[in-house]
Fold:
Amino acid sequence: MAASSESILDHIPLFAKELLAGGLAGGFAKTVVAPLERLKILFQTRRTEFRSAGLSGSVRRIAKTEGLLGFYRGNGASVARIIPYAGLHFMSYEEYRRLIMQAFPNVWKGPTLDLMAGSLSGGTAVLFTYPLDLIRTKLAYQVNYISAQKSNQFSSMTLVVFCDLQIVSPTKLNVSGMVNNEQVYRGIRDCLSKTYKEGGIRGLYRGVAPTLFGIFPYAGLKFYFYEEMKRRVPEDYKKSIMAKLTCGSVAGLLGQTFTYPLEVVRRQMQVVPSAAIGFTVYDTMKSYLRVPSRDEVD
Structure:
């Protein structure tokens, strides 16, 4: 059985292994930090109820009223979005790194290579998955607006759960079919279809410029710091999970600090563990899938 699995792995293309490792890393990291994400959303949308209870009181309240699964509500939609993003992010980083090395064998060495490849991979991942993020944002906005208004003119609306997001039931729309002058979407497909009909491809990429502006430096610095720190880890500890977690934590924190200095205090609790877990699972999956070291590939 072991020999059979090894032969299967030998026939999987390198880029596919990296894509799989990156997607699993992103999904796993997102699931681990899901309780923090749920608490953050509740603090933002239901301030009176949860902010007054504090962190520990909010945790007890969710556990009592919703059980363990309450901490992971909404995680399905997040994971569905992050898997393709993370897979493309990690895979394209490796591909860009190899391409740069081949094109500039005597120039692009050291941390500058990771900075450039990381920045390009971040932009690539955003360009391929931005429509998914746009749709998620539209649906989330619709849910928040309806939640805020349902005690008034929207009190008679029936809400249904679709892919971990509350969407307006098609049988209970108001007469105009609008919410706060915005078209009501019945779900992911409906939102995608209407957005495309309204603006075509440009409509699906509305607002992508600021996202790219932010992701280029962050993604580049994140990979730069992670690879630079790994180079300084003693040889005996290079395969240590704790060493990878530490490198990932610091890389995520430094990347966020240099690119979003005003938000780091508010977001570091969420971003540092996510980056640490993501990098660690990615490197671990690469070892399991027998992805050759970069020195062998380069």
